[in-house]
Amino acid sequence: MNCLADTCVGTKKRSDIFVPVKHPIMKKLVSTICILSLFTCLHAQTQASLKLKLPVLDKSPMDMAYFPSDYPVLKIQDKASDPLVARIIYSRPQKDGRVLFGELIEYNTVWRLGANEATEIEFFKDVKIGGKKLLKGRYTMYAIPTPAQWTIIFNKDTDIWGAFKYDEKKDVLRVTVPVQKTASVAEIFSMNFNKTSTGADLIMAWDDVSVSLPVSLK
């Protein structure tokens, strides 16, 4: 018999060679092989996922402060009667038994007002800080602490890590505020707005120290 190479083997058709598996033992063997193959694939995928490296929680996690302070919640409830004025993004380091001001945070030295990335504030309208006008926009905030007062700095160079590249030439505004001793110790650095008759006071507190920066909308 003359056959084409891809249809015949010797005198038999190739289709005659592959017969269905009908023997019970062979069926079990084929099923077992399929299950083992599936398990191997799933195990390989699991092993691959276990190798995924995720960043650990930072010791000084980021937080936000708004003015009005409850603006995000009121917005989703359609109850926000006052427009958003300001938003701060900052890191919240912990005291953790350390001596802070005068040691960890040196006096008369520019401080990032937190940890890691320098603190940033965005104003959505023009305001007055300590009686001085500040145009709406985004700024990096720094502080120069002393035992009696802090100099709060608004700088136009944003997206900065630390205060290592701080450039005084890019300062937009500087305001000096007095230091107040607190009755209790603030373990975690905190920034928040307290509403006033003319706007808000930006409160910055850590350890047994706090300062209040007046923000006027009038």
From TrEMBL:
InterPro entries: DUF2911. Pfam families: DUF2911. It comes from the Bacteria. This is DUF2911 domain-containing protein.
